[in-house]
Amino acid sequence: MGLRSEINGEVALASPGEFAAALIGPIEVWPPVVLAPMAGVTNAPFRTLCRGYGAGLYVSEMITARGLLEGHAKTHRLSGFAADEAPRSIQLYGTEPESIAAATKLLTGEGRVDHIDLNFGCPMPKVTRRGGGAALPLKPRLFGSIVSAVVDAADSVPVTVKFRKGTDEEHLTYLEAGHIAESSGVAAVALHARTAEQLYSGSADWAAVAALKEAVSSVPVFGNGDVWEPWDALRMMRATGCDGVVVGRGCLGRPWLFGQLASVFGSDPATGGVEPDDPPVLVAVARTMVEHAGLLVDWAGPRGIRDFRKHTAWYLKGYATGPSIRRNLQSVDNLDDLQRCLDDLLADLDPAMAFDPAALRTPRSHHNGPKPVVLPVGWLDDPADLTPPPAEAEALVSGG
Questions:
Q1: Measured between alpha carbons, how far is 115 from 250 in angstroms, rounded to an integer?
Q2: CA 252 from centroid of its chain's CA atoms
């Protein structure tokens, strides 16, 4: 039996025909699993690594419409794809219709993308205080005008929208946002089942995913939040009726989660699932770390190894390696340094060390919150106002 936590001890594998492939326009997604865009993480190297373990839809980290139009070097790099990457899926951020439509035309007119996802869920204060991210659905007419502008500009390229429940429990916007997005012609919607105030704390409200699925009937609905094990994806879909799941923090340091997800769903909807492999032993984790770091260096040059440092603690979470090796790994300067550190690790410890099941549901990366949401002054005064946020709302660096 594949490794599972106590909470998932009785979850059954997908049975033949139980689930269908999720359709995002002409894109058939099986298993019905999407990699969540994550700033500084879901770049081309990480997407390549994850895709090697299992099929699904792998979305880039966020790029800004204005950064793309103004030719920012970082935006250009983040909007690139691996040579064999298909479908090419990108997340786009903007706060007013004109620039985001122009950016969409640039992406689609050059044939650079096969799918565009719109970010209306970012809860970070630097975004919401400017009227962007999770703050935008509080202005439903403005939200609708942006979504419609992108759908029109995208032509035949499918557009999806990702949002949160709302800014807080007093301002829940997800059902209205779902209706607006659906009527604007999007191909699917995705809900991170937390409020912006929660940030990444507490438990995801899967009942909200079920409510959205009931409210939005003509396009697929994806659920996001607390998918730490492959069994969580099955539980969410059975509990909510949603059409697929979005995986974020659960795959950090665990790209093989996508292989486990592919197993429990099955090779196609008609076959049914099979028991997934257990997490890899320590020596296999080390090999994956070297592969990931090499991809980053090939993509970003010498700074790629610095980008990799944050991944090292995620990879070793659940393995009893001790704090000193973690500190050493977070200061490596090149691939040779990384290899030496890992060689020392494997010489001192059992290379066949197994993953600790108690760490299956241990959060990776963000776990901060709750924290009051900061909005622009007067943002709640007139929800029908079509005036976009000031220009500085789009003066954000692509990637977060």
A1: 23
A2: 10
Q: Give residue-wise pLDDT tens across range 71-128.
A: 999 998 999 999 999 999 999 999 999 999 999 999 999 899 999 999 999 999 989 9
Q: Whole-model pTM?
A: 0.97
Burial of 319 (0-12, 13-18, 19+ CB in 10 A): buried
Instruction: Indicate the residue type of 323.
Output: P
- H helix intervals, the chain: 44-51, 65-69, 73-78, 97-109, 125-128, 140-154, 174-183, 206-215, 230-240, 257-265, 282-300, 303-316, 323-329, 335-348
In this structure, are residues 186 and 219 in contact, taking their beta carbons and an 8 Å threshold? Answer: yes
Q: Which of 50, 122, 242, 341 is catalytic?
A: 122
What is residue 18's DSSP assignment?
Answer: S
Largest CA-CA distance found in the chain, in angstroms, rounded: 64
The pLDDT tens digits for 158-199 are: 999 999 999 999 999 999 999 999 999 999 999 999 999 999
Q: At what angle do helices 282-300 and 303-316 cross, to 10 degrees?
A: 160
Beta bridge partners of 34: 57, 246
Tens digits of residue pLDDT in 337-374: 999 999 999 999 999 999 999 999 998 888 888 999 99
Q: Where are the domains of the chain?
A: 21-274+370-394, 282-354
Q: Is the pLDDT of residue 244 over 80?
A: yes
122 is catalytic: yes
Does 393 score more than 90 pLDDT? no
The fold for domain 21-274+370-394 equals TIM Barrel (3.20.20)
For residue 118, the 8-state DSSP code is: E
